[in-house]
Design goal:
By secondary structure, the protein is of the alpha+beta class. The chain has 2 domains: about 55 residues; about 150 residues, no CATH class. Helix content is about 35%, strand content about 25%. The chain has 6 helices and 8 strands, in the order H-H-H-H-E-E-E-E-H-E-E-H-E-E. The strands form 2 sheets. A 6-stranded antiparallel β-sheet has the order 4-3-2-1-5-6, with no helix packed on it. The longest helix is centred in the first third of the chain and has 34 residues. The protein is elongated.
Length: about 230
């Protein structure tokens, strides 16, 4: 009686033999089945990832109309970039902000560079923060709304503040030093709400008034922000 026949006969009786006594065709079929199972799982995973990426690409965000309500209107596939020129007189500095969305959170990443004394300055991260889309403290949308009239200029090509999204850009212009200082003060007060630490005074310094001078001593009063 052949060995493989004896093994199959005994197995029918309930006797278990090592795999080496079984037909090599069985092992080959098991390996093929395992390969098919792994391949199926990989394809299913790739399909799911592709569907997720396709969903993220769908966005109807419009920079012109939605910038005053971007917290709610933007999607996870959107990225809004803000550039602000901090330069005044001999001081040279710039700030850039990247705004993204993840679930119900708005992410803000801010970098700053100062090139007053450095010809090749590097962008440095100032802060990274997250706020809920229902946030009412950082009123950046209201800032955009009340400065809508600054979006046109017959004299300048680039604005003090620039907001870009998906190849489109909005400029906010200023006219003259007084108007520039007024615009910067409005911007600084808005940004301090999200970054009260005001690292390196990038959002301005507190103004100090000399209230009076008595007995040769100067009494200083720090003006509180509204």
């Amino acid at each position: 009686m052949r060995g493989d026949f004896q093994a199959r006969f005994c197995e029918r009786l309930g006797v278990k033999f090592p795999l080496s006594t079984r037909s090599p065709n069985v092992l080959r079929n098991l390996k093929n089945l395992l390969k098919i199972l792994i391949l199926t799982l990989i394809l299913a995973s790739c399909k799911k990832e592709t569907e997720q990426k396709t969903e993220l690409k769908k966005s109807e965000f419009n920079l012109k109309t939605d910038i005053t309500d971007f917290k709610k209107k933007m999607t996870e596939s959107d990225t809004i970039k803000i550039w602000f020129d901090h330069s005044v007189c001999t001081y040279q500095g710039a700030e850039r902000i990247e705004i993204t969305k993840k679930s119900d959170l708005i992410k803000i990443r801010t970098e700053f560079k100062e090139d007053t004394f450095d010809q090749n300055p590097e962008w440095k991260i100032v802060y990274e923060k997250q706020i809920p889309i229902t946030d009412t403290i950082w009123k950046m949308e209201e800032f955009f709304k009340r400065n809508t009239n600054r979006q046109k200029s017959e004299e300048k090509e680039y604005g003090t503040l620039q907001v870009s999204y998906n190849g489109n850009k909005i400029h906010y212009f200023t006219k003259g030093l007084v108007d520039l200082n007024r615009f910067m003060a409005d911007y600084f007060e808005t940004m301090k709400k999200i970054h009260p630490e005001n690292t390196n005074n990038i959002y301005g310094v507190e103004i100090i008034e000399f209230e009076d001078i008595k007995n040769g001593e100067i009494k200083e009063t720090v003006l509180e922000t509204e």
